Amino acid sequence: MDKDSYNSFTAINNIMIVSISCEMTDDNTKTLLDKVTENAYKNDVKGVILNFSEVTMLDTYLFKSFKDLTSALVLLGVESIWVGLKPGVVSALMDLGIDLDLKKIKTAVNLDEGLAKLK
Amino acid sequence: MEVTKQNITLADELLQQQILNQIPTTVMAVDKNMNIIYINDAGIKILSKNMNEIIGKPCCEIFNSSHCNTEECRMKRVLATGVPYSARNEITINNQIIPIEYYAVPLKNDKDEIIGGLEYVLDITERVQYEERLREQSYTIRQMSTPTIKLWDGVLVLPIVGVVDSMRAQHMMESMLTKIVETYSKVIILDIQGVAAVDTAVANHLIKITKATKLMGCDCILSGISPAVAQTIIHLGVDMDSVKTRSTLSDALEEAFTILKYEVIKK
Questions:
Q1: Partner of B209 at 20 to 30 A CA spacing, among A21, B111, B188, B217?
Q2: A residues 26-65 near B, CB within 8 Å?
Q3: B211 close to B218: Cβ distance less than 8 angstroms
Q4: Residue B153: what are its φ and ψ, rounded to 5°?
Q5: Share of chain B above pLDDT 90, in %
Q6: Are the beta carbons of B62 and B36 closer than 8 angstroms?
Q7: Helix (H) or strand (E) segment spanning residue A33
Q8: Closest-CA residue to B29 (of B39, B16, B17)
Q9: Which residues in chain B touch residue A103, judged by CB atoms under 8 angstroms apart?
Q10: In Å, how far are A4, A5, A28, B184 from A1, measured between CA atoms?
Q11: pLDDT at A108
């Protein structure tokens, strides 16, 4: 029943890299969150990289979902780093005017940096 | 005590007509149904028509403006409410579009009833050209004034000079984010020493920029904060908790090295 768009998970050295696709809908976001948390638990993952480089748009719902995912992973003892957000996406997100609380979100400028931060 | 009038000849009707006709801009009057009942010489000249082609005709037929026959028509509003209105508009004469500003006021009879309206029209072609030139110059200044410079491997610096309004803040943010992606920088220093006035709006623009860079994985340090600015920000109650700040660019660079875990050793 896996008809959501392709989200890939890769694991290296207890670090899971989640490549978020550009077609995130309300439905498959929920599915993705479930999958990531289950995977993190099952495979004894210590760190997660959320790779946003394919994402073309982040609205309030998506942003909150990924923030919630980050917090949920913290509860599981897993650190996560956001990587690859495009300037256009960030600009549009800022224009939404929501009060972004970025204290709980760790970010890195590219995949290398993200992996380095997780070590 | 009576004030004696000197020997001044007041303008008679003929002279009054001449006065109206000497006004270098179009003056016209319409009746309640928006038919033209008067137009001065300047108006006739601009329309390049004869008097009898104009008088008695509905004004929308003659002037052909973008407000004609729409809710935008200010003369319609004046005739309905008796309140003066003015607006910018465009008229088309001989297939040429002329930008104008027109003022409409009501004409009333002795019983204070609205019997028509008076309109005078200013050709603002020159003004529009000035505005266009101003826009171009503003654009040039904006382009010139926000170069993001690579200060060190992984460190960008953006010195800001002048006024930070929302358009400039937006433009700065976009150019910063693009540069961050291009150079994979991990720290960007925003130097605001050249910013004349920091008020709540400017502070909020800066905070928004620091959040945006943070989302891209780049730490933002605000430097060039003067004692006066520091006091102003606290006094305004702006929440700067999420922002790293330093008073000078060199301090900010030191902080950047700390973040990047670089150490400077003297040989």
A1: A21
A2: none
A3: no
A4: -60, 110
A5: 37
A6: yes
A7: helix A26-42
A8: B39
A9: 242
A10: 9, 12, 12, 39
A11: 93
Residues B244, B104: Cα–Cα separation, whole Å:
56
Query: Are B180 and B188 a contacting pair, CB within 8 Å?
Result: yes
Sign of CA dihedral B65, B69, B73, B79: positive
Give A83 to chain B, closest Cα distance, Å. Answer: 7
| pLDDT for B222 | 93
Letter for the amino acid at A96?
L
The model's pLDDT over A54-113, given as tens digits with 9 standing for 90+, comes to: 999 888 889 989 999 999 999 888 999 999 999 999 998 888 877 777 888 899 999 999
Residue pairs spanning A and B at CB distance below 8 A: 57
Q: Is B208 an interface residue toward A (CB < 8 Å)?
A: yes
Indicate the pTM of the whole model: 0.62
Cα A90 from Cα B217, distance rounded (Å): 11
Residue in chain B lying closest to A86 (CA):
B216
In chain A, % helix, strand, coil (3-state, to 5) comes to 40, 20, 40
Task: Note whether A87 and B178 are within 8 A (CB).
Answer: yes
